[in-house]
Design goal:
Blueprint: E1 6-11, E2 14-19, H1 30-45, E3 51-56, E4 61-63, H2 68-71, H3 78-95, E5 100-104, E6 107-109, H4 111-118, E7 121-125, E8 129-131, H5 145-153, H6 155-164, E9 168-169, H7 170-176, E10 181-183, H8 188-200, H9 204-219, H10 222-237, H11 240-250
Parallel strand pairs: 2-3, 3-5, 4-6, 5-7, 6-8, 7-10
Antiparallel strand pairs: 1-2, 8-9
Helix pairs in contact: 1-3, 3-4, 4-5, 5-6, 9-10
The chain binds coenzyme A (COA).
């Protein structure tokens, strides 16, 4: 599939989405949200793809936030429409069956930090820069950005990040638990590939159901989340992959997961 603002490269079971507006530091405009929606919906249905990676084009940015030049012209109800378009993308990232890795180099600001947070795993190069600078523009990250940050790293630090708008470096993001893997800049590609290949070898059913359980925990109250987890676990037990995984262990061989 061809897109105006993103590229998709498939390499065996791994699909890489490249945010491709380097002249605007890969800023998110409405077309980006539309392209990401179409791309992720197609990936969700493609059983050949077992892991997704998202990265930015160029050396300077993952994504430097929402497109401020486009936002400057937004009036009235259009702001909420834009929020829903963005939120749909972030929801898709969490809910597609495949695990999604954000491979972060350079700026991951505003909606760019949120895009990374909607992924399952965040690998950052040491020189990456994070933050929610929206407060300096007279707004705040209103596409679910306050909520997701609060739930991922806790209220105290989320408030400081949203209200001060101060940028912070990758070691600080790692310390906050915002980034799950921190590597030297020249190791980013290899570490991203290592994690992608690792998960591409697992049962797609188990990966999907694990995401379902984690999503339930993020999105639901405790009792309801536990019910959702029991149901997701039962779906794993009903899969051929779990017989394969357990038999492979007993027979001392590598499993061959088929995704059913
Ligand atoms: N929206 C639209 N364009 C953006 C952008 C954004 N969020 N971030 C960067 N750009 C554009 C710049 O306007 C510039 O375009 P130009 O060459 O046509 O003027 C180009 O990308 C390069 O950015 P520039 O600001 O010149 O680079 P820099 O190294 O001086 O600064 C940043 C880098 C990231 C600190 C700075 O671009 C910035 O603060 N961007 C906005 C971040 C932000 O507020 N994000 C949240 C938005 S809600």
């Amino acid at each position: 599939m061809q897109f105006e603002t993103i590229l998709q490269e498939n390499n065996g079971p791994i699909a890489t989405i490249i945010m491709n507006r380097p002249d605007a530091l890969n800023a998110l405009n409405i077309q980006v949200f539309k392209d990401l929606t179409a791309c992720l919906l197609a990936i969700a249905k493609n059983r050949e793809i077992r892991v997704v990676v998202i990265k930015g084009a160029g050396e300077r940015a993952f994504v430097a936030g929402a497109d401020i030049k486009e936002m400057a012209d937004i009036k009235g109800a259009m702001s909420s429409e834009r929020s829903y378009l963005g939120m749909h993308v972030y929801d898709l990232l969490r809910h597609i069956p495949q695990p999604v890795i954000a491979s972060i180099n350079g700026y991951a600001l505003g909606g760019g930090m949120l895009l990374a947070m909607a992924c399952d795993i965040r690998v950052a190069a040491e020189g990456a820069t994070f933050g929610y600078p929206e407060i300096k523009l007279g707004i705040f990250p209103g596409t679910g950005g306050t909520i997701l940050l609060d739930r991922l790293i806790g209220s105290a630090n989320a408030r400081a990040i949203c209200l001060t708008g101060e940028l912070f470096d990758a070691p600080r993001a790692y310390q906050l638990g915002l980034v799950t893997h921190l590597v030297a800049k020249d190791a980013l590609v290899a570490e991203t590939a290592r994690l992608a290949e690792l998960m591409a070898g697992y049962s797609p059913v188990a990966l999907h159901e694990t995401k379902c359980a984690l999503n339930a925990s993020l999105e639901m109250a405790f009792e309801a989340a536990r019910e959702a987890e029991v149901a997701a676990h039962a779906r794993c037990f009903a899969s051929n992959d779990r017989f394969e995984g357990m038999n492979a262990f007993i027979e001392k061989r590598s499993p061959d997961f088929r995704g059913d």
